[in-house]
Design brief:
This is Membrane protein DedA with SNARE-associated domain. It is a multi-pass membrane protein. The protein is mainly alpha-helical. It has 9 helices and no strands. It starts with a helix and ends with a helix. 35% of the residues are buried.
Length: 208
């Protein structure tokens, strides 16, 4: 992620305050991959200067994660299975994938959402499969908040503690830049793995 984009995000968060954090974190939880690993450290740098502000920021961001999850959950619940059954081959998805999601969420749904909200990338997309599996929505939102809060707090804390050196320590900018390159590389590698593995399965299951 370029320094210009980071500067734009810092400016948006600094000028928009908590409203900008709510918007960005809600978008991030609606299956749109704006990494929280970028948003929350920058929010901590721009908005959190005391422990109380840090707690408020983590709480607001966690509530925003719930807000953004609502449309993704309902898209999965109302149209996810029919959509995948009809158009899944275009997305390299199959009914077997849906059955695996249903079985997994029936057995491990709560702990999956809880842990998934603490994992990069996974937290962005977890609402859709939870909706497809029709996980109890109240339970989903409770575990989304519980899982999101420590994640958001930790990232904002890092931003608050290290952000003071943003304009005075060029080494910090370099480390921050490498970190985000790493996040982007993981996203790209995960996408490549998904395509390759599902393409192989598609070839195996196609009739001769």
């Amino acid at each position: 992620m370029s320094e210009k984009i980071i500067a734009l995000l810092i400016g948006a968060i600094a000028s928009g305050g908590y409203a900008s954090v709510v918007l960005l974190m809600a978008i991030q939880s609606a299956c749109i991959p704006i990494p929280s690993e970028v948003i929350m450290p920058l929010a901590g740098y721009a908005l959190a200067h005391t422990q109380l502000q840090l707690i408020i920021l983590a709480t607001v961001a966690s509530l925003a994660s719930n807000l953004g999850s609502i449309p993704a959950y309902w898209v999965g619940a109302k149209g996810g299975r029919p959509m995948v059954e009809r158009y899944g081959s275009m997305m390299l998805l199959s009914r077997r994938d849906l059955d695996l999601v249903d079985h997994f969420f029936a057995k491990y749904g709560s702990i999956t959402v809880l842990i998934g909200r603490m994992l990069p990338i996974v937290r962005t997309f977890i609402a859709f499969p939870a909706g497809v599996a029709k996980m109890n929505q109240l339970r989903f939102h409770i575990y989304t908040f519980i899982g999101s809060w420590p994640w958001c707090y930790a990232l904002a804390y890092i931003g608050m503690k290290l952000g003071a050196t943003w304009n005075t320590n060029p080494r910090f900018k370099e480390i921050f830049h490498r970190f985000h390159l790493g996040v982007e590389a993981v996203i790209i590698l995960g996408f490549i793995w998904f395509v390759v593995s599902h393409w192989k399965n598609r070839i195996r299951t196609e009739p001769a």
